[in-house]
Amino acid sequence: MEISELYHLYLKCGQQLTTDSRNCPQGSIFLALKGISFDGNKFAANALEKGCAYAVVDEKEYVPEGDSRYILVDDTLTTYKELAREHRRQFSFPVIGITGTNGKTTTKELISAVLAKKYHVVHTEANYNNDVGVPRTLLTFRPEHEIAVVEMGASHPGDIRKLVDYVEPTCGLITNVGRAHLQGFGSFEGVKRTKGELYDFLAAHDAQLFLNSGDPDLLEMAGQRNFQKVVSYASGGADHEAVVTGSVQSCTPFLNFTWQSGLHTPSASQEYEVRSQLIGAYNINNMLAAIAVGLYFDVEPTLICEALRDYVPSNNRSQLTVTKDNRLVVDAYNANPTSMKAALENFRLIDGDHKMVILGDMLELGEASATEHQRIVDLLKTMDFETVWLVGDEFGKTDGSFRKFHNVDEVKACITADKPRGRYILIKGSNGSKLWQLPELL
């Protein structure tokens, strides 16, 4: 079956498609995806019994002879993405593509919040930014939407190139490039090449670029492509040549900053102030990206400030949690050398007594893991935190006198036996370190 035919069937089924056999709306299409530990083909019959009208599978053995409800394709994941692209092409509204090493989910949410002040926005939910999550986002596009914000993640060379071929963004940005997923990318240069695949697509289609011109790597990468349409932003104050500029005023612990712009504002010299609910001075660039996009799409500056002021982070990203016993800065969703260093430097600057740091392993660094973990430990040695706990096998191999734990269970046992009290605690680590289990105990 051609994709155009399958798309017609998708419309006939009320644009109802599920990849979860536990959730089978009446008259929908079940698409059998496969993963490391599951094979959706095995659940196709069950999905039809529950109410699906059709089942898309890629293994012939699961197709009963003569049953027209089964649609056999070569590869269900490829079909899923091609169906999503066909759907995306039915819409002419702007599609903003976002990738980067750190901050892409926060930036996506900030941009969506700003644009929602003027438009009906559709955007990536949570962090569904891989080759399954992106098609899922594209298939949520509806006629009532006016603009889309799509986040794209990568852990191997070529990942972004594959995604942009389906997203077909009309504009976009890279938040930054850092030392993450080195096991998959092979090197920092591999990270830059892969993230730069978004730049490749935008440049080839004469699309709009939003550029953090204060980032030397991004500036170099953009300079290697022939961009004609650029809106630049950068932190550091009004003396910067960027169109949108901003300066951190305080971060104790929430980011308070000022910004100004010559783009669609009443006065290029007018300064605006935002008291955000985000922790971390490093978030100013995420804020400025949202401002640049908002201004480009004619959102009023006062409404932009309002959206940024009201945004509250979730999912263990730069969250401040105040418990009966402690104040916690929780950033336990993900970690890499770049974000870890930024979090530590920011935490050092926050006013507070009895500071404690609990760090979990940074995963997927490959051969660079030992070196990168030691660099973090060496950085910690220059800081005056009262207490430092390191969690995981990689931190366990480092040279330093800080207290070490094999895993989060050992940490939980320690907290249960002798709970820290009256502390200001930073909790950061890769999701696989499971440090997100600690806040409820502290």
Written account of the structure:
The chain is an alpha/beta fold. Helix content is 34%, strand content 21%. The protein has 15 helices and 19 strands. The strands form 3 sheets. The chain has a 9-stranded mixed β-sheet with strand order 6-7-5-8-9-10-11-12-13, with helices on both faces. A 6-stranded mixed β-sheet has the order 14-15-19-16-17-18. The protein has a 4-stranded parallel β-sheet with strand order 1-2-3-4, covered by helices on one side. A hairpin with a 4-residue loop joins strand 14 (319-322) and strand 15. The longest helix is centred in the middle third of the chain and has 17 residues, at 188-204. The chain is globular and about 70 Å long.
Which secondary structure elements does this structure contain, and how are they paired or packed?
Blueprint: H1 3-12, E1 17-18, E2 29-31, H2 44-50, E3 54-57, E4 70-72, H3 76-88, E5 95-99, H4 104-115, E6 121-123, H5 133-138, E7 147-151, H6 159-167, E8 171-174, H7 182-185, H8 188-204, E9 208-212, H9 216-223, E10 230-235, E11 244-251, E12 254-261, E13 272-279, H10 284-296, H11 301-310, E14 319-322, E15 327-331, H12 337-349, E16 355-360, H13 369-381, E17 387-391, H14 393-396, E18 403-405, H15 408-417, E19 424-428
Parallel strand pairs: 1-2, 2-3, 3-4, 5-7, 5-8, 6-7, 8-9, 9-10, 10-11, 15-19, 16-17, 16-19, 17-18
Antiparallel strand pairs: 11-12, 12-13, 14-15
